[in-house]
Amino acid sequence: MELDDYNEKTKLVSTFDETSNGITCDTTKQKSAASSQDPTVHFSQTNGTFFINFDGINSGRFGDFGEGSAFQAACNICNCIFGVGILSIPYAFKEGGLVAAIVIFCLACIVLVYTSKLIARCLYDDVESPDGTIKKVRTRSSYADIAQACWGEHGRRFIVIIQIIYCMAVATLYLELAGAMLVETFPKFGLSKLWWTVVTTVLVLPSIFLRTLIKISISSFIAILAISSMFISVIVYSAMEINSSTWQFEYTPNVGIRAFTVSCGVLLFNFEASFAIAGVEETMKDRSKFDSMINFSYGFCTILLLAYSITPYIAFGNDVKEFIVYNMPAGPVFIAVSLLLVLKAIFTYPLFLFFIIDNFDLLRVNALPPCYGPTPKDPPPVWATIFRAVIVLSCLFFAVIVPHFAKFMGFIGSLVSPWMSFICPCIFYIKLKFQYMSNIQIITCVTIAVIAFLFGIFMTVASTTELLITFATSFP
Fold first, then answer.
1. What is the spatial distance between Cα 353 and Cα 342, in angstroms, rounded to a whole number?
2. Does the residue 20 lie in any domain?
3. Alpha-carbon span 395 to 349, nearest angstrom
4. Residue 42 lies in a domain
5. DSSP character string of 44-109
6. Phi and psi (nearest 5°) for 169?
């Protein structure tokens, strides 16, 4: 069966050889300015899918194809979901209202599980073999490839740019977070927040040498252990502070609409993992477990985050601080929670640095050579290592000049998350899979996209206003 001409650049004709239970492919590719290398074909015996790497410059991006386990994939996804705004989630619950925040949290989890699966399905096309059976062929290797298939080169650049903005913002805020925690934890050292941020930057600098998601999954696992320990510490301490005889639950807290929308931006910011879906799915040895992995990752993170957010709200009510760590008593508890957060920041940084570099590579700027070696085992060009260091130093620069952590986080979440996580996945799936969709699927995707678009505009306006007011009061 002949596939459609993807982006007027590629054509694939696949013939299945049943006697060898394999595939023989005649592949032709029109030469383009972006790449002049031939595609390579890979077959997964585990789940019977074929995937084609059309772009030679990306052959070393994620590591060897299909070497990672579902557990390693879940580590990277959970590390993304446990985002940089974890300290401010209890505060967002207070600002947005407990009931409303719980509803938003649960709905976001359900919808994000759905849209994550849409992104993964858009990486594949169905090919009919001579005997009439349908084989799934992985014809795209990134979120940007999906955008290009739908909107051309402009779509690719749009997705890549907003992913760079998001990942750079997260990487920057991790450095700021670590610096803020260390200056509070070790005041006797006499170092300012600036110098502690510099120390953190030095500690994360070796991450420029981690080049595959499989290796980074080890770092993600350590980060998850650290942040889970921090959550448990906060939950236990908050539970001990609850005075059940005086606490009363309020179903209708007095919450302003602007505070609610900013809080929604904070919550969405922490659930963002769409930028990692394609890369994580590509590293899985058994891709048939992808749906289960996504279900587990979002379910696990949602349950833990809800417990971590609700317990402090019950314990401290309107006294919940912008950083929940400031509700902890001075001494061992405060130091332990702060250091666990610093560990989380340090061991999460390699993941976001990886995707920053990956998206710069996907920009396909002709003036710049590839950011990766020909294979995962080959070192990247010298310039690429220097470029990685420049990215880290750029994040340090922004970390120094970006004040008002939670407000800025809400602004970025409101601006970027609706497009990356809700609108684009639905639009792309309709564009690529419309002929296979049921009426219910079409209505669901359209509804999600429209609501996310309108809600995104509202959140962006509200969070921008909040940010401008904050800056105006800080700098009279």
1. 17
2. no
3. 11
4. no
5. ETTTTEEEEE--GGGTTSSSSTT-B-HHHHHHHHHHHHS-TTGGGHHHHHHHH-HHHHHHHHHHHH
6. -65, -45
CB atoms within 10 A of CB 303: 11
How many domains is the chain built from?
Answer: 1
Determine, yes or no, domain membership for 253. Answer: yes
CATH of the domain at 82: 1.20.1740.10
Q: Which of 314, 279, 316 is nearest to 80 (CA)?
A: 279
Q: Is residue 35 part of a domain?
A: no
Beta-carbon-side half-sphere exposure of residue 212 (alpha carbons within 13 Å): 21
Q: Are the C-beta atoms of residues 430 and 437 closer than 8 Å to each other?
A: yes
Condensed to tens digits (0 to 9), the pLDDT of residues 265-315 reads: 666 666 778 889 998 998 888 888 999 999 999 999 989 988 888 888 888
Provide the token pair at 177.
Answer: 């977070």
Please name which of 47, 39, 33, 31 lies closest in space to residue 13, comparing C-alpha atoms: 39
64-73 residues labelled b (16+ CB within 10 A) or e (exposed):
ebbebbbebb
Residue 14 in tokens: 């696949």
Other Cβ atoms less than 10 A from the Cβ of 13: the count is 12
What digits encode the pLDDT tens for the residues 233-271? 888 888 887 764 345 555 444 555 555 566 666 666 667
| Contact indicator for 104, 95 with CB cutoff of 8 Å | no
- Per run of 10 residues, the mean pLDDT along the chain (length 476 residues) is 37 38 36 38 41 43 66 92 79 75 85 94 84 81 91 91 88 87 88 90 90 87 93 88 56 52 64 87 89 94 89 81 79 87 92 90 72 67 84 87 66 80 94 92 95 85 76 62
47, 66, 75, 277, 462 from 69: Cα distances, Å: 13, 8, 10, 14, 41
